[in-house]
Structure formats: C-alpha cells, structure tokens
Amino acid sequence: MDWFFENFKIIQWLVWGIFGAIVWALAVTFTKKKDHAGLISRVNKIELTYSSKDAHTSLAERVNTLESQVKEMPDKTTIHRVESEMKQLKGQLDGVEKLLSHISNQVGMLVENEITGSK
C-alpha cells in the first residue's frame, strides 16, 4: 500500500490520461447529437426529393404517352376533308333513298298489278 501512496500522482495522471484517451476516441468515433439531427433532416429532405422525382417520372411517362397518341391524330385539314366527304356521301345517300323509294313504289304497283291481273 505504501507503493500506491508513493506513486499516487503518477497513477492519477495515468488514469486521467487513459480516461481522456477513451473520451477522445468516443468523440472521434461517434456523431454529436446536433450533427446527427442535421444528418436526419438532410436524409429526410433527400427522401422527399426522390419520392417527388418518382412522381415526376410517372407524370413524364404519361405525357410521353399522350404526345405519341396526339401525333397519330389527324390535323384540322384532314378532319375538314373527312367532314366534306361525309357531307357528299350523305347527299348521295339522300339521292339513292329517293331513287329507292321510286323503285319501291313501282315494284309495289307491279306486284299489285300482277295480283289483280292474275285473278
């Protein structure tokens, strides 16, 4: 025990030195609470950015799909030409309808004549 009391100052310096080395090693190894909170906020911000980029990516794909469909649609001159042709066809069908009604009337008269004439 005398040896301990004689070398107490040296032992005390060694203990404090080892304790200081341990505290320094822990401070270097682990993150401070303030830095950790900052890192968490940065990670959350990055996650929000990437999740919104996923939404942007899906919207961009939808826009590309719509653009490709619009490219295949006819322009206004083509639509106007088709409308004009449809009007012409409607006029022709009206003429054919009148002709068919005359033919139907004549066929009806012929059938009636055959029926009455065969008696």
Description:
Residues 79-106 form a coiled coil. It holds the Pfam family DUF2730. Keywords: Coiled coil, Membrane, Transmembrane, Transmembrane helix. The chain crosses the membrane at residues 13-31. The protein has 119 residues and is mostly helical. It folds into 3 domains: 1-30; 33-73; 78-119. The protein has 4 helices and no strands. The protein has helices spanning 2-6, 8-29, 33-72, 76-117. 0% of the residues are buried. The model has no long low-confidence stretch (mean pLDDT 88).
List keywords for this structure.
119 residues, mainly alpha, rod-shaped
Low-confidence stretches: none
Radius of gyration (CA) equals 49 Å
Mean pLDDT: 88
What structural category characterises the helix and strand content?
mainly alpha
Return the domain count.
3
The helix/strand series, from N terminus to C terminus, equals: HHHH
Distance between the termini: 155 Å
The shape, in one word, is rod-shaped
Total helix count?
4
**Fraction of residues in H or I helices:** over 70%
Strand content: under 5%
Number of strands: 0
Describe the largest sheet.
none
Organism: Thalassomonas viridans
Coiled coil: 79-106
Protein name: DUF2730 family protein
Transmembrane segments: 13-31
